[in-house]
């Protein structure tokens, strides 16, 4: 029998502590122990198991089979009619070259010429240096443009991306772009015009067997599939499958509420996704995040080492063989049997969105504590004055924006428990409602290898294999310390904390400390059966070690708050988002005092509603 939602929250509101029972009743027999444990309610594992039964991706509200057109092989001579959507700053000539590179060695294409390719070209014309900031990339693309004075143009895009690759990235259409150039802010229909143009193109030229896209084009193809699943007649029965390279979705805090445009349930359309872990245009967790919005039974995944491009697939490589198998099933509309490759298995047990449990009931009179997990490295990260180094930071990013996010990160990592204590006292007029508790690190914790050692990327040649780490992925955004070590640290920290049976406990983690805070919440739940009423993660690392990583719903129904600045280039926090079936939400801040106040006001107001 599944527990009620009220029952699921009972664990968080009761503040039960098995360890306290043991210490207070050392002489109890095993029957007494069983009775004491039973009073604490279901175990975290039992709660998680119950919640997971409600999270089956094909049964979530809005789940639906993709509405595909009747028939197959819509091209001439029974070929696969496929529409290619190019990346930003591209054109049909470049698109044709990209398609050839990907598919020339795929047996179904190499031997049978199975594809009939069509191209949807954007209508925003940009100059070479306007859309391609990296000099090495400009050199590669120069010959594909049109001579225009002392530069080249003819590099087309479907939309303008405000704040591209940052935490508030927002997609704008052609007219919205012109308003931005004129210093005006467009209205909320800024992106819809792009999809309307695409819908009209599909209505005129479709149906297609598949959509294939790269970067911006892949974003539009995915968006069309989302709208089709959600019942938008403009996109229903227009295509049967997707092949996407370097595809990403809407950011949660994009402007005009575009975060609400993410799928309501995982898409059930056969999809083959590929990206590079060395992509120097985006942080690769953007691509991981979008992949989770495809139902695991419909999701094929592969990696390549060629950076931000549709990959040049070599003959007989695993990627080429897997793509051929995808094409083989898709061409005759057979059920897609996803190959259980290493890449597929990495994400198989994760998906988004999830059903969210309501916030736990919190007593207004129970003692409340905020555990502050400071950054174990203290104030750290690149200084704002280093922002002009384009070998270290993204070529596409304004140095001023880069300097701002570096400054904010250093503020966060330098924030201490004393800052929260001062705000708590200010809110309460001197008599703090929330007790601030610093989580004390041991000396050896400060010297652990929390983050990877980073070398400057080779930026001399574009798209060469093995160029190294993306400039969009800062060392501070990735954790290299194995989970077994992080959990050991959390256990040692928990041993030092005096937490009462009736305490209402929140946790805030700062920078690298946010990762420790997550592990501490996990330890509290598993070792003391105590769930935090809030877990605040401030500028946390979003890239975690895969081995032994927390599973879907690992923190049961713990509410998690993800706080960062809009200028951040960290990828989507899908690890945090999938770790709880409780409430999950984002907020932005641009100064230290706002961040501290946001946390303290929320902790102080618990239970007031």
Can you describe this structure?
The protein has 21 helices and 18 strands. With 609 residues, the chain is of the alpha/beta class. Strands 2-1-9-10-11-12 form a 6-stranded parallel β-sheet, with helices on both faces. Strands 14-13-15-16-17-18 form a 6-stranded parallel β-sheet. The protein has a two-stranded antiparallel ribbon with strand order 3-6. Strand 4 (146-148) and strand 5 form a beta hairpin. Helix 16 crosses helix 21 (592-604) and helix 18 crosses helix 19 (512-528). The radius of gyration is 26 Å and the shape is globular.
Radius of gyration: 26 Å
Largest sheet: number of strands, sense, barrel closure? 6 strands, parallel
Shape, per Cα inertia axes: globular
Question: What percentage of amino acids are in beta strands?
Answer: 5-15%
Notable characteristics:
six-stranded parallel beta sheet; alpha/beta; 21 helices; 18 strands; 609 residues; globular
Short description:
The chain has 21 helices and 18 strands. The protein has helices at residues 5-14, 18-24, 30-39, 44-52, 92-103, 107-112, 128-131, 135-141, 174-181, 192-205, 216-229, 285-291, 318-331, 342-347, 399-413, 417-427, 443-446, 483-495, 512-528, 574-578, 592-604, and strands at 80-85, 115-120, 124-126, 146-148, 151-153, 155-157, 160-162, 170-172, 210-214, 241-245, 271-276, 299-304, 368-373, 434-438, 504-510, 534-538, 560-564, 584-588.
């Amino acid at each position: 029998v599944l527990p009620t939602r009220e029952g699921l929250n009972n664990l968080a509101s009761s503040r039960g502590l098995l360890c306290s029972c043991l210490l207070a009743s050392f002489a109890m027999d095993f029957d007494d122990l069983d009775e004491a444990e039973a009073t604490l309610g279901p175990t975290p594992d039992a709660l998680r198991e119950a919640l997971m039964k409600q999270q089956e991706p094909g049964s979530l509200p809005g789940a639906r089979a993709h509405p595909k057109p009747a028939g197959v092989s819509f091209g001439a001579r029974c070929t696969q009619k496929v529409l290619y959507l190019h990346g930003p700053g591209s054109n049909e000539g470049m698109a044709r070259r990209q398609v050839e590179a990907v598919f020339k060695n795929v047996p179904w294409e190499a031997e049978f010429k199975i594809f009939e390719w069509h191209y949807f070209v954007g209508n925003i014309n940009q100059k070479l240096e306007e859309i391609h900031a990296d000099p090495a990339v400009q050199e590669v693309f120069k010959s594909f443009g049109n001579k225009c004075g002392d530069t080249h143009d003819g590099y087309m895009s479907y939309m303008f991306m405000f704040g591209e690759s940052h935490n508030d990235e927002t997609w704008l259409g052609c007219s919205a772009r012109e308003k931005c150039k004129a210093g005006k802010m467009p209205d909320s229909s800024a992106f819809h015009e792009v999809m309307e143009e695409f819908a009209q193109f599909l209505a005129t030229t479709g149906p297609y067997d598949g959509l294939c896209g790269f970067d911006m084009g892949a974003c539009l193809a995915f968006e069309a599939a989302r709208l089709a699943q959600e019942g938008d007649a403009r996109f229903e029965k227009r295509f049967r499958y997707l092949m996407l390279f370097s595809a990403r979705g809407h950011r949660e805090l994009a402007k005009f509420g575009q975060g609400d445009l993410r799928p309501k349930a995982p898409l059930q359309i056969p999809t083959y996704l590929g990206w590079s872990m060395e992509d120097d245009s985006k942080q690769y967790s953007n691509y991981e995040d979008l992949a989770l919005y495809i139902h695991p039974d419909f999701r094929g995944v592969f990696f390549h080492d060629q950076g931000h491009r549709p990959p040049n697939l070599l003959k007989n490589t695993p990627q080429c063989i897997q793509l051929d198998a995808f094409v083989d099933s898709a061409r005759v509309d057979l059920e897609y049997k996803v190959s259980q490759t290493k890449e597929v298995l990495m994400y198989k047990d994760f998906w988004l969105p999830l059903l969210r449990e309501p916030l736990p009931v919190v007593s207004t009179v129970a003692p409340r504590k905020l555990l502050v997990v400071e950054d174990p490295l203290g104030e750290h990260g690149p200084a704002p004055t280093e922002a002009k180094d384009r070998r270290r930071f993204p070529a596409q990013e304004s140095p001023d924006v880069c300097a701002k996010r570096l400054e904010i990160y250093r503020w966060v990592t330098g924030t201490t428990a004393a800052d929260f204590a001062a705000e708590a006292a200010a809110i309460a007029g001197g008599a703090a409602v929330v007790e601030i508790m610093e989580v004390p690190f041991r000396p050896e914790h400060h010297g652990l290898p929390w983050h990877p050692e980073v070398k400057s990327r080779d930026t001399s040649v574009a798209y060469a294999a093995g160029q190294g780490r993306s400039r969009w992925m800062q060392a501070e955004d990735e954790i290299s310390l194995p989970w077994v070590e992080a959990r050991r640290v959390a256990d040692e920290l928990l041993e030092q904390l005096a937490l009462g049976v009736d305490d209402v406990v929140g946790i805030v983690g700062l920078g690298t400390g946010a990762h420790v805070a997550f592990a501490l919440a996990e330890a509290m739940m598993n070792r003391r059966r105590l769930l935090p009423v809030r877990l605040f993660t401030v500028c946390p690392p979003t890239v975690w070690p895969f081995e032994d990583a927390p599973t879907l719903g690992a923190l049961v129904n713990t509410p998690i708050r993800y706080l960062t600045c809009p200028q951040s280039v960290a990828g989507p926090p899908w690890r945090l988002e999938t770790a709880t079936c409780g409430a999950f939400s984002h907020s932005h801040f641009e100064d230290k005092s706002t961040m501290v106040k946001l946390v303290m006001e929320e902790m102080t107001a618990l239970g007031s509603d």
